[in-house]
Structure formats: C-alpha cells, structure tokens
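CORE FACILITY INTAKE
Project code: CF-77B
Contact: R.S. (postdoc)
Sample description: multi-component assembly, two entities in total
Requested service: structural model of the whole complex
Turnaround: standard
Below are the sequence entries exactly as provided by the requester. Do not edit them.
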Amino acid sequence: MSVNNTFPRFIERGIVALFCLLFLALGTARAGSRGTLDDIQKRGVIVWGGDPSGGAPFVYADPQNPSRYIGFENELATLIARELGVRAEFHPTDWESILPSLNRKEFDVIINGFEPTPDREKEVLFSIPYYVFRQQLTVRESDTEITDLESCKDKVIGTLANSAGSRLLGSLGCNVKAYEDPPNAYQDLALGRIDAVMMDRPIAVFYAHNDPLLKDAGLPFSEGLYAVGIRKGDDSLKVLIDRAIMKLYDSGKLHQLYQEWGMWDDEQLKLKDASALMNSQVGLSFNWQDGIKKLLFAACVTVGIAVVAMLIAVLLGLALGVGLLFGGKWLRFLISCYVEIFRGTPVLVQLLFLYFGLPLFGITMPGWLTAIIGLGLNYAAYESQVYRAAFEAIPRGQHEAAEALGMPRNLAMRRVIIPQALRIALPAMTNDFISLFKDTSTAFAISVWELATAYRELANASQKFLMLGAITALLYFAMSYPLSILARRLEKYLRPAESH
Amino acid sequence: MISVSHLTKSYGTHCVLKDISFDVTPGEIICLLGASGGGKTTLLRCLNYLESFDAGTVKIDDVVLTPQLPQEELKRRVFEIRKRVGMVFQQFNLFPHKTVLDNIIEAPTQVLKQNIADAKRKALTLLEQVGMSAKAERYPSRLSGGEQQRIAIARALAMDPELILFDEPTSALDPERVGEIVTLLKNLAQNNITMIIVSHSIGFVNAIADRVFFMADGEILESGPPSSVLHNPSNERTKKFMRQELLLE
C-alpha cells in the first residue's frame, strides 16, 4: 500500500540471496586438496597429520627450538617417506578432530598414536601396526591405595579423550575425566584434582617419570596398536606403507628407533606377524544408548552450573550495584574497575586463568567449581550494570512522593522504588541468564563434562556429528526456551494494564 | 500555625531565597505567584524539607526546623512534619505499580500503621470526595492527567494533613480541567485544611487564593488578597508581571 512495502521486500530478497550464496559456498568449499598415492609421488612429499600440543613423545615442539618438531613418530614418518621415495612433511592438527581432518584432505595420512577400532575402521583404512602399546597407571608418589585398575573403581581417573584408554575405562564403568592434552592430566594428578591417570605407556613414561610427585602404579596392561590412518579408497597407498613398515621392522630400523626413545620392549616382537595382530584386536565401539545418556547427564551438569552461577551473579551483582549507587568515591572506583575487567575480557580467558593460574597461588579448585565461580564473577559485572541502570531509571518524583508521604528511606525503597526497578531489570536479567546457559560451554576448556564437551567427544568418537549436533542443540534450546516463556509470563504478571 | 522566619538558601554564590518570612493562619489558601526562577517552588519544597535551607526556621505547629539542628534530631522532626504536611506534585507522581486504591492507602498503612480495612474505607470516601470512586481498582497509567491529579490529592488527604503543598497543580492539565480542580480545592478549604499553592497561572490564583505572595529573585515583593496584588499592585515588578500576564491571558 504505502512506500514501506517495497523496503522490507528488498531486504527480504537480499537475505534470501545471502543465504543461498552461503550454502553454495559451504557446499563447494574444500580445505585444500590432497591427492592419492599418485599425488604424493608427483609432489615428492607425503603430508602426515598429528597433534603436537601435549604430544610427547609422538610429535611435539622441541623445547630448545620451538619452531622445530621432534618425536618418535616424526622420525618414523621420515623413515616411511624414505621407503616411499618421498619427503615427509608434518601438518599439525587437533587430536579431537583428527579423523574428520584426514577425510577433509588436510593431510595424506595420520601418524599419531592412532589405534584401529571397529568404529574408526568404518571411516578410514589402517596400515599394519607399527607399535604395540599398553596402558600405564600413574598415581601420586604418596598414594598407597592404588596399585592396579581394580583399586581405581571409586576414584577419578584421567585419560586422553577418545582413546583406547577412555574407551576401556568407559566400558568398566569407572569415574573418568577426559583430557585433550596429556600434560594437563598429569598436572591435575599432581595437584590432587584427580586420583590417577591412565594413558598409553609412552606418554606415561615421558610425562610422569621425571616428576618426583608421581610414580607408576602397577605393571602395564591391556594391549593396543598404533597404525597409520589412511583415507578409504587409497588402497595402493596402504600397500606401500604396509610394505615400508615391514621393511623397517625386518631391517632393525624400527628396533633402533624405539630403543632411542626408550620405548622398546618384548611386546614389539609381535609386530613380526603384524597382519595377524590386526585381526586379533578387539576394539571397543560406540554405544548409542550410552551416548544419549551421557548427553543428558552433561545437560544436567550444564543446568546445575548455570543455575548456581546465576545465583552468584545476581547476589554479587546486587551488592556491586548498590555500591555503585550509594558508595563513596573509592568504593565506586574499585567496583568500576572490577566491572570493566570482567566485562572487557572473554569468559574463556577468565576461566582458564582461574583454573590454571590459581594453583600457582596455592588455590586448586575442581573444574566444575571453577566454572561456577568464574561464570558467577563474570556475569555479576553485567548484572551490576543492569541493577544500577534500573534504579536510575526510576524518576526522582517517585522518591519525592514517597518521602513527602513520610516514608523513611528503607520503606520507600522496599515499597516504591525496588518493585519498579525490578520490573525494569527483569527483561535484561532473563536475557543474561539465557546467555549464561550458553556460556557454560566455555567450561570445556577446563575439562568440565558439560554439554558442549560431551557433544564434541561423542561426535568425534562416533562420527555422528549432525545427529548428535541436532540433539545437543535441542537440549540447549529445551533449557533456555522455558526460561524465555517464564520470563515473559513474569513480566506480564508484574506489569499492570497498559496505558492508552 | 505555619511560621517561616528569615529563610535563606543559596546554591554556591547564587542566592535563591533571600531572608523570607511570613505567617499563615490555619485554613488559609496562600498562592505563591511569580515568573520561573523566582524561588516559589524552592520555597514550597523547603516547607516539607524536600529541599534543605541554609539559615532561618520553618515552624509548623510546635515542630521547628532549622539547619543548626544535629542530623538525628533534624531527621526526626522532618518525619514529624511530613506526617502533617501533604504534597501534590506537578507530575502527579502516583505509584505506577499500585492500583489507585493501593496508592491512597500506602502511606496510612505503612507509615501511620493503620488497619488496612479502615484505611480502605477512608480511601473510598476520599475518592468520592474527589469524584473518582469508579477508578479505585484502576492503575494510574490508565487515567488521564486530570484524573491522576485528583487521585494525587486524595493520596495526600489520606494522611489527614493540616497543610497541603501544591506544586503547580494545574500546569499539566487542560484548561477545562482547571475549573474542576478549583472547585475541588474550594471544597477542601471548607474542611479547614491550609493550602500553599505554587502557580504561574493568574486566573487560577485569582479564583482560589485568600492571599497572594508575589515572588521574584528569591524575595516576596508583595503580599495581600488577590484584589490588591493582582488587580492593584503597588510594586513595580508586580505591575510589570501582571501587565504581561494579563496581555497573554
């Protein structure tokens, strides 16, 4: 009818076009293309992927020269490449998503303590194994209770996420805490946050043997294999790599490599009959029912953290707000500093600081408590501004009317000012609460098993990204939408009839 | 019963009330008239200590307010005064989160600790008096300006004040409503309630005042019944003001 009709339509078309472009771009995007065996031979380079962060002794940055990578797998890759007549090039990647990265062709093969499991075998090919590893339990020097896996039943055990260890512990029903980086697990063990760490023996040897606070508990147990991960369809590449590994074993080069790294033991003799070894391995695969249960549990953790953190935020925020409104010059200055610091830095950074920094001052808190306190402190800064603004929004006339009627300050606040301020603050508060719910996902960085962490781990373990992703999104929505509705109802109830 | 003596107030070097003194007999309707910035609203607000002052005394019945008093004592006396002195504001200042009835019973029940049922009964009577009985359960946001002003008057009356202060009671109203307020105030006057009203509307002042104080630059330049101050002023500035206002009327 009016001119207004054409303006919104133009915007609508523009948005639709934008979305189409986005989908098109996503559909055709590829993170770089790596070839098959032919490509490798044409290039003269085989690119292998591994996670260097906390990656000792596999592949990690040389402490004396951080721009260089070292590690037994670094050397193994070079040896294999030489057998293939090419050069080896390392491509650093993230352990959690190493398999999808291989399939996205970010590199040619995975050489990173990668264990063949039935689930993984559905997605990738494996070479014959190049190492036989076992699990090793590590405990604190002072610990006399834990001597083997049995005695860990009621304790908290740390392990590497998405590994043989995590699957083994999961199937035994132990209290597991999964870590992205092995050194964090050993750190937490030393600090007392967990009771034991179970990881592949090479890792345990590297990180724990030099630490006087830690010691081995019991003998190594439960065998596993490392093999090279290869994309499905690259069978010709697999044949060559298998041949290379066999040659390295027969020529004694493998023995020499492992001797140098203190990793050789009699178990490695089994590698002689590598293909038979592959078939005998019984890996543990992903359980759907278990997965959903884990997601629900993680959702409960998320709710718990959010609720308690919000409580802290509201109470502390109220105190800070009151201080800002009625405090003296110095108090207001201090509070303003607090607010600017907590609003001006990312929540993630604050949580990391509290979790990894405080132990240096002697304060060690478990991850969930750190998350609650960190989020509470952060959101208190926002809440203080909400309450201050709400209070200042009440016209001076309201204070004066109450005073003129003979009401003392406290009474006027309680009966006249605060009820009105509350109505103003409520929309902002519910907004913040919903925001807080989603910010609980930052707790993944400090190893809290909340919903985002659970999704990441389960999705990487099962490769069911979309399905689990949809369920996770639904869970987040199911937690925050009722809040929205409740808030709207509350506002309606508190707001008297609209003016004309 | 109301006595102001040598009242003085300054904002820094700027003196807004200069040595003001006057007396008011119970039941009188006093109007403070003058141009903006003359000090009339400030003077009004000093009477119930919404504004503090630097020197002089305000005496209402037996309660004396003076700045030399220690803080605690001053506070106590201010509360005493506010129980006996009501105020009606230019912007009404009704409590938006309460119904009309709740607005009126709020102070009697919370400050005077009256029984709620009694307070409600009294409130309904007052609403009748101001002609707003039908609106008892409404919220202020649903009422027109004139209606809100009358509720505000009822709210002040609920405390049984001896004196009611009015700060520009008709400035926010349509001209038609002004007449209604005049009638209402005249009715109240019959109950022997003293009223001090700030206004810059000569018509209103002419209709309602027993005595008019013409103020400019923080002083009362002239005082007397409307017949003299409005129609036959002796002070030059008063003359000037009346001439201007009458021309604008």
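Facility notes:
- The two ends of chain B are 35 Å apart (CA to CA).
- The first strand of chain B starts at residue 2 and ends at 11.
Invoice: internal transfer
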